[in-house]
Specification:
Pathway: Amine and polyamine biosynthesis; ectoine biosynthesis; L-ectoine from L-aspartate 4-semialdehyde: step 3/3
EC number: 4.2.1.108
Structural class: mainly beta
CATH topology: Jelly Rolls
Family: Belongs to the ectoine synthase family.
Distance between the termini: 22 Å
Function: Catalyzes the circularization of gamma-N-acetyl-alpha,gamma-diaminobutyric acid (ADABA) to ectoine (1,4,5,6-tetrahydro-2-methyl-4-pyrimidine carboxylic acid), which is an excellent osmoprotectant.
GO molecular function: ectoine synthase activity
Shape: globular
Length: 128
């Protein structure tokens, strides 16, 4: 059994910070469970482009408001507490945070914690 708190992750190498967001990686590939779990905060007023070409991601919004645009269709969806979006087709997307958005993200395959978004918003597939 693994029991972990956000306080244990804060300001460690599992706490990734950028200009637009902060991601606390709670469960990573090293745990060997087939997925990773993160708590991510997208900062108010930011726009972030992502494309997880190598991962499937589910995102559950717990706090804040904004919107997500499916870059393939142009369709825009509101984001608010209780909303889940699933990037089940490696969807290119843009998230626009009106307020700070706090969410729980699940990745498959799991991330290692060393991934960095490239110029297209893609995480490389790192398996070790």
């Amino acid at each position: 059994m693994i029991v972990r708190t956000l306080d244990e992750i804060t300001d460690t190498d599992a706490d990734i910070k950028t200009e637009n967001w902060r991601s606390k990686r709670i469960i990573l590939a090293k745990e060997g469970v087939g997925f990773s779990v993160h708590e991510t905060t997208l900062y108010a007023g930011t726009t972030s482009d992502f494309w997880y070409a190598n991962h499937i991601e589910a995102v559950f919004i717990t706090e804040g408001e904004g919107e997500i645009e499916d870059k393939g269709t142009g369709k825009v969806y509101p984001l608010a507490p209780g909303t889940l979006y699933l990037l089940n087709d490696h969807d290119k997307h843009q998230v626009r945070a009106k307020t700070d958005i706090k969410c729980v993200c699940v990745f498959n395959p799991p991330v290692t914690g060393r991934e960095v978004h490239d110029e297209h918003g893609v995480y490389p597939l790192i398996t070790e």
